[in-house]
Amino acid sequence: MDYDVLILGGGIVGCTVAYELSKYNLNIALIEKASDIAEDISLINTSVVYDGSETTNKTISEYERKGCKLIEEACKKFNVPYKKVGALRVASDDYGVFKLKEMYSFAKERGIEKISLLSKEEVIELENNINIDVKQGLYSEDVAVVSPYELSISYAEVAADNGVNFRFEEEVVNIAKISKGFKVITNKNKFTCRVVINTTPFDINMGDNISEQNYNVKEEDIIKNVNYIIVSKEVKKPLDRVVITVMDENKFAVNIPSVYQGYIIGIKDKNILKSDERINYSKKLIPTINKECVSSIFNDIYKKDVMFIDDENIKEGYIKVTGTHYGKIGIAPAIAKEIAEVIAKNINTTFKKEFIDKRRDVYKFKNMSTKERNELIALDNRYGKMVCLCNEVTEGEIIDCIRRPLGARTLDGIKRRTGVCNGPCKGSYCSRKIINILAREMDKSPIEIVKDSKNYTIWNGRIKEFDRCKNCTKNAWLK
After folding, report:
1. Of residues 311 and 392, which shows the higher confidence score?
2. pLDDT for 136-187, tens place per residue?
């Protein structure tokens, strides 16, 4: 066999599975069709880690509750931004009060701690800047926010340092059962392995995409648009917690404090909203928001409770994990730990004595003191050359993210790792510099650098390319 375990897909689930399995004496590879890991995560730098109290699905709730603790531990180990901010759900009518009480009862039945029903007065005392008609609130103290891509790349880098082979730009085209294992065929190679953990949208037969309808999920329960705005830190009277309010049966708004600076407000709706509409809905949470406060807008898809773990063929060595869930960041570590324990038991392997559960240091110039900055610049003067003025990212940080394990190979890869191009200028100042740095580090021409995949080049050619006019005796030039 080429490998003991093949992980198909390098999203957040694939990265956490790779990390958990790298603790064992196994030969592991991860196959990803994209140019980078965790491309299923939005470029936004903040995600909510739920405590399991908000979902009606008991299985998902249990994964969220376990994942919440695992992520807190991982963020401490890997030095990833993490804030326990709490979540406040607010009801403005009798139906909303009924739903909060129902949610509270479910949470208590599942043993979820640090959750409480609040009166109108208690809600206002907790969040005195709230701009909503309040009848009752539900407060979940353990809900946190985390930097999702930094968490994902941490899991992946530690897995790589512990021997997992990451193979990018390889697309799986077929999986076949063979004696004592599987044959996995990609567009570039053929591999044999004892175990396949499939986190891609394809089933074992690879004939068809898996659709949510196969799992009896109604389309209307799956897809909703989430209209986001990113609010700058200058907003007056902000909300300090994740605050969720239901506006009607099909619409809710959520305020999410960023792990760095500023706030993110999302409005779930069946439609994609215009910027003015987003701001007007956001004012129902924070009345001081205006166009000047908004640094960016973007859209995402909200998928509810669409996460499936198919272990029907686990005895043969095949596990399928698929789906997109709004709480996937919090769910993934718990799923990964469970899968790794089952695989290790079935294969009868042992823990690595030499396992290194530590990520290589990352220097965030923006968050360092003046003394720390000067000490770093003394070691490497490239940390004293500012490239992204909006987010204070230096040349040293960009070079480091390229040279690290699973280093960035695309412009979006650098964005995800460092936060460049996400400020008010949207990369108009720094993107050219970043492309040239990436080209230099990879020994490529700048026109070979891509945004997020080999099919998406940024520059098509030099601004001017000239050839001497062969038919002219004068010193003339043609474009």
Report:
1. 392
2. 999 999 999 999 999 999 999 999 999 999 999 999 999 999 988 999 999 9
Tokens in use for 50? 């739920």
Nearest-angstrom CA–CA distance, 100 and 90:
8
pLDDT bracket for residue 351 (50, 70, 90): very high
The number of beta carbons lying within 10 Å of the beta carbon of residue 168 is 15
Give Cα 366 to chain centroid, integer Å: 21
Tokens 């699905």, residue?
57
Lowest mean pLDDT among 38-47, 143-152, 412-421: 38-47
Task: Report how far residue 254's alpha carbon sits from residue 47's, in angstroms, rounded to the nearest whole number.
Answer: 12
Give 359's DSSP letter. Answer: P
CA 186 to chain centre: 25
Global confidence as pTM: 0.88
Partner residues linked to 268 by β-bridges = 226, 252
CA–centroid distance for 312 within its chain: 28
Joined tokens for residue 65: 């509750």
The 10s digit of each residue's pLDDT in 60-76 is 899 999 999 999 999 99
CA dist., res. 316 & res. 180, Å (int): 8
Residue 85 DSSP SS3: coil
Identify whether the C-beta of residue 118 lies closer than 8 Å to the C-beta of residue 139: yes
**Which of 344-375 are b and which e, b meaning 16 or more Cβ less than 10 Å from the residue's Cβ?**
beebebeeeeeeeeebeebbbbbeeeeeebee
As a whole number of angstroms, the distance between CA 60 and CA 56 comes to 8
Dig out the tokens for 343 from the structure: 């695989």
User: Which of these ranges, 241-245, 255-259, 280-284, has the smallest mean pLDDT?
Assistant: 280-284
Contacts of 251 by beta carbon, 8 Å cutoff, 6+ apart: 267, 268, 269
What residues contact 286, with CB distance under 8 A and at least 6 apart?
A: 129, 131, 231, 235, 237, 238, 239, 255, 263, 265
Q: Residue 71 CB: number of other CB atoms within 10 A? A: 24
Instruction: Determine whether 102 is exposed, middle or buried from the number of CB atoms within 10 Å of its CB (0-12, 13-18, 19+).
Output: exposed
Distances (CA, A) of 443 to 11, 167, 446: 28, 20, 9
Confirm if 119 and 125 have CB atoms less than 8 A apart.
Answer: no
3-state SS assignment for residue 160: helix
Query: Residue 405 is which amino acid?
Result: P
The owner of tokens 């539900």 is 138
